[in-house]
């Protein structure tokens, strides 16, 4: 459904139910925005444009907000309702693996929110995104006029593991200690937000055009983290 | 703002902007639902009622959905807009630490969504909830007419760690192997969803009544997971 039809259909419904008198004599408002059945209609987005937006948004609300809001705000502008009813700030809590607890990387949590809003087969897209995330040298995004940053492979979807592996790679690269609370790590996470937002939009576009080849994860353990990292025999 | 005032104010705004003619000659719909500034208005909820609802919802959409939707649907019924515009299914992806990846416990991810929707100081509530989660013998919820389940202390906000520690405790308790994919583990996660939903509502009620004493986390590492679980000297 394109935006014109969307508005036309919205109008029909809207005129019908926008203001109604409830049974009890009170007045209730309703609109088609209250139909919250997922998935919501998706339109093709520009991955590069969204990546730049996510990079900019990182300074406003960190990683999870950057990915979720960058994609959501594009959909608010291109589709309108029902996306306009979703608060763009919902995922601000995802920063630092959820307010600094180091659990799931916030870029992934924000991406999951958007994927679930827009895809019936959200699980397939999330598996594909997570698998890409833990195997890929990141960040891939380079802001205009800046030089590329050192990259690392996280081998895990966890913030703490991903951040610390990058800090190690960056320490080697820059020849001085790069700590978790350095401005370089912050810039890395801004570029990571852009990288994950771009990849998410590529996956969404492919899925909605019937071109997605989802990654199939074999076995019980989806992450390919080495079990012995936590289950060494000395414990 | 109670529901009556909320509707009255909504009506004023609604009549003003519900149907407007856009500059380009097209017709655009808008309503007060499009004001998505957080936090949204909260009303006191019944923790026991929400716990039972989360327990029931687990069968529909697993852990993260159970906590998020149980609280959201109560707010939809008691407050109405703007909660009615949020899809209750948004957090279905959170199950098994995000579609089985074993990262953050889904009950916590769902709770974070609701906390961020309703609280300016979402970080303080999340710290308090996570700290309680990793130190408390869980699950605490017992369905009516059923016996209590074995409990375990996760010492971590991660799904994989929390589940496997419980499986070990349950294996000792029942005197037979309780696996991660057993019906007992599933029942434990349903009761865990109810336990976390109840605690979240207690925290929300306390916060909005000015009675919350938030937990302050000292040091860089918020989780009290033993570093050497992943960083043993043999690696």
UniProtKB/TrEMBL annotation, chains A, B:
InterPro entries named among the record's database cross-references: CGCAxxGCC_motif (IPR010181), Multihaem_cyt_sf (IPR036280), TAT_signal (IPR006311)
Native source species: Phorcysia thermohydrogeniphila
Domain of life: Bacteria
Top-level taxonomy: Bacteria, Pseudomonadati, Aquificota, Aquificia, Desulfurobacteriales
Name by which UniProt lists this protein: Putative redox-active protein with C_GCAxxG_C_C motif
Annotated Pfam families: C_GCAxxG_C_C
PROSITE patterns: TAT
Coiled coil: none
